[in-house]
Amino acid sequence: MPIAPALHSIHFPESQDDLERARHRLKFEELFTLQLMLALRRNRVKMGLPGISFGVKSRLARRLVDSLPFKLTKAQVRVVKEIATDMNSPRPMNRLLQGDVGSGKTIVALIAMLIAIENGYQAAFMAPTEILAEQHFMTLKGFLKDLPVEVRLLLGGQRAKLRDGVLGDVKSGSAQLLVGTHALIQADVEFAKLGLVIIDEQHRFGVTQRVALKEKGEAGGGPTPRPDASRSQPSGTYPGAPRSQGAGMGPHPDVLVMTATPIPRTLSLTIYGDLDVSVINELPSNRLPVETLLKFNADHQWIHRFIKSQVEGGAQVYVVYPLVEESEKLDLKAATESYELLKSKVFPDLKVGLIHGRMPGEEKDRVMAAFKSGKLQILVATSVIEVGIDIPNASVMVIEHAERFGLSQLHQLRGRVGRGAAQSTCIIVAPDWMGKLLRRRSTPEHAGDRRRVQNR
To answer: Looking at residue 247, what is its pLDDT?
Structure first.
């Protein structure tokens, strides 16, 4: 239907079918215009900004892959090729990497960082919390233990002497890979030649924060030219060469943002229309899918018996609540009161801990460290653990009042388990009267991964 008849029919329809056709036409017009604007924006970013043309045949990356105790999945290999193509391109990369928890996003990001480092640039890896940044730092250090790569960690709460040393290494360029939190975007952080920005759990950062880190690279210069005739490069470039720069402005670093949160397909096109998207849609062969069960309040005795049997078998358990404290306005269980109940009456012979967002940062870190070390067997929590550290032995999660969490949040929470070789279980608990509604909504019970959520 042409636009003029559609505008007439939306106000003066001759029939219900005429109204529906007009409504469909106007919706299409609006969405088409939005997608066209986003496509123009992405094209302007790609074609109008100078960047870094990386040589992507990296000996460091090859040594890393050859040293891994596992084989990359086909999905990881495909995504690495997509990222390498972007990095070799004469324009800045701006890519979203989406993959379920445990799909291997970190190793893909590390391969990209090694490409940048071998070309004479630095890489920055920003995580939303200090405990997660520390975990990434230790993980990356472990992968790189036999490679000549200097890795540093920058956190807001570091001692002044240690922080000054890290800042000096970053400014001089001796720190090739910097892992940190929001501390990376503070004014006193100066990179010698930042070429690649990795942002983990990107939905936890605002646009301004992501741009601030990217701009750390735009002010720096490029590395010393290192021509290599054996590599095929775009005309007029060499590995690591900065492209044409504006006055006083260095090349734009490549940006890779990562998320495990399922992004519905339509929202992905609208919100992330300025990003290219790569999806790791395959789990490593040694990872078992998380078994997800839908239970109701009447099943709590069974749930408690299940938890006890799992702990006795050596597993650790998360129990998640939507609130920190009980509210007079909401008839919901809360973490604080439930912690006291579970600790004193339900599981008096087990070691139960508590963590929530109102606790001081140091106390939260102590609790998570105790849980990771095995000193705690059950951790009562709020959604503060939605982005957290890897604890392979934590193989059971119980989510109370699941109707109070969004679908993406349920997936993100479920991602805290299933990180080890043992079979993991996520129990979603809902009020008895919401049985029928929750069966419709609890997509995690019927989907093995988050990709199916995207297409709904």
So the answer is: 37
Give this prediction's pTM: 0.72
Q: Is 104 left (phi over 0), alpha (psi -120 to 50) or beta?
A: left
For residue 397, what are its two tokens? 């999660």
Determine the Cα–Cα distance for residues 192 and 220; give it in Å rounded to an integer. Answer: 6
Distance between CA atoms of residues 394 and 425, nearest Å: 10
Return all residues near 179 (Cβ < 8 A) that are at least 6 apart: 125, 127, 133, 136, 137, 140, 151, 152, 153, 154
Read off φ and ψ for residue 293, nearest 5 degrees.
-115, 140
Measured between alpha carbons, how far is 322 from 310 in angstroms, rounded to an integer? 23
**Whose structure tokens read 């397909």?**
265
Q: Name the token pair of 121.
A: 């640039």
Summarize pLDDT for 157-213 with one digit per residue, the tens: 788 899 999 999 999 999 999 999 888 888 889 999 999 999 987 666 666 666 777
Q: H/E element holding 197?
A: strand 194-199
The answer for residues whose C-beta is within 8 angstroms of residue 303's C-beta and 6 or more apart is 295, 398, 427, 429
Q: What is the pLDDT of residues 391-433, one digit of tens each?
A: 889 999 999 998 888 877 888 788 888 877 788 999 999 887 7
- Radius of gyration, alpha carbons of the chain: 25
Q: Does residue 355 sit in helix, strand or coil?
A: strand
Strand, coil or helix: what is 318? strand
Which of 264-273, 354-363, 444-453 bottoms out in mean pLDDT, i.e. has the lowest? Answer: 444-453
The CA dihedral of 191, 253, 147, 127, to the nearest 10 degrees, is 80
> 3-state class of 251 per DSSP?
coil
Beta bridge partners, 197, equal 124, 255
Task: Say whether 90 sits in a helix, a strand or coil.
Answer: coil
